Amino acid sequence: MKRRKQGIPRVLVIDDDERLMMAITQVLHDAGYKTRTSYDGHLAIQRLSMGYAPDLIILDLVMPRVNGLEVLNWMRQHDLQIPIVLATSEDDVRAADVGAVVKLSKPFTDEELLAAVATALRATEQGG
Fold it and tell me: In angstroms, how far is CA 26 from the centroid of its own chain?
């Protein structure tokens, strides 16, 4: 999948906690990112399968219906190589173990969120 190299970075926020999802979206919007949201993995997969190609995904692992690991597996099966920032309270999961770039442990600060997003985007630009 081709990556965009310029323009405003697009971020897909996938989390079943509506208040947290809106807070993340507001922080990212204020920092100049374009955002879309999905309240569960099923909706996220629908968006991705219909051609929406964000530059980054912020992904919760524990969600009803379709969880974050299922989203990651679907992405692998469809060769979607979009950097992932895990936003989870699961202590025993490491980002590298599931193919994510960065892990944010809930609760996190706005500064930690922006740093994680910047790190993931930088890592992608540098080829990994």
Answer: 15
